[in-house]
Fold this sequence. Notes:
Elements: H1 22-27, H2 34-60, E1 63-64, E2 74-75, H3 79-86, H4 91-120, H5 127-135, H6 142-152, H7 159-165, H8 182-206, H9 211-219, H10 224-252, H11 256-261, H12 273-283, H13 287-312
Antiparallel strand pairs: 1-2
Amino acid sequence: MATAVTPPPKAPATSEPPQAPARARRTGVAPRRLPYLLIAPAALLMLGFIAYPVLSVFYYSLQHYNPTKPWRNGFAGFDNFTRIFTDDPHFWGTLTFSLKWVAVEVTLQLLFGLALALIVNQTFVGRAVGRALVFSPWAVSGVLTSAIWVLLYNSQTGITRYLADMGLGEYGTSWLSDTSTVFSAVVVADLWRGVPFFAILILADLQSVPKDLYEAAEVDGASRIRQFVHITLPHLRDAIILSTLLRAVWEFNNVDLLYTLTGGGPAGETTTLPLYIANTSVDAHNFGYASALTTVAFVILLFCSMVYLRLSKFGGESK
């Protein structure tokens, strides 16, 4: 005869919320707040290193501050900004050259970087070595890059000397001191360093393109050019937008290479706005006016970045 089994009594229902883990109870911290508290020290430290210099620049932009002429120091209001737009013979020229420098460098670096990325993305013997050679200039510091190209452009031991030995050009020619060749010379030097940046980012995105898309396109009879236009470029859209924006900001703020190669010369032909700011603050010790120039440059970069991201629809779906 079967015996009925009585189920154990259920625990009485309670309306109390589930208790927090023992570790959280001991520390008195809600589990959701604990990660933020753990990263708070590092976040506050980074904020201090970033916020203090920025706020200091905004403060000094409203001051007359020159350590070599302390009797003239004091509150300036908007006098520094008025002088920039109405009484500075160098501001508009350096800003124009900065925009030209950014447009030429970013465009050429993008084109050459895209071409190199497409080449090293193919399968061939020695691809690993080829990729290492392509990416190696990006690992070289800006100052060392400048030193390398100073030696290459040296009129006694550099490229022009070997060209003169072959009958191309004259001995003693210096491309960095000639107003007709200096821009091309510094552009080539910066291309050597900047092209690998685009090649690295674009290659990383190329490797994530599904191979099935290319196989389906080949079955449909699409040529290599149509595959590049309709498959590769749409997939690289966000990577190209982001890399061009970052590189444009970096090129606009480029100081080390131009300062080492030309110092802004000859005759101010290669003086960008950041280089003009550096000369105003370091050489002329006019930190108040240099801070105002920096503030104007910051506003220009911020406005152009916002417009660029708006027009490019970064992060949106490509049509």
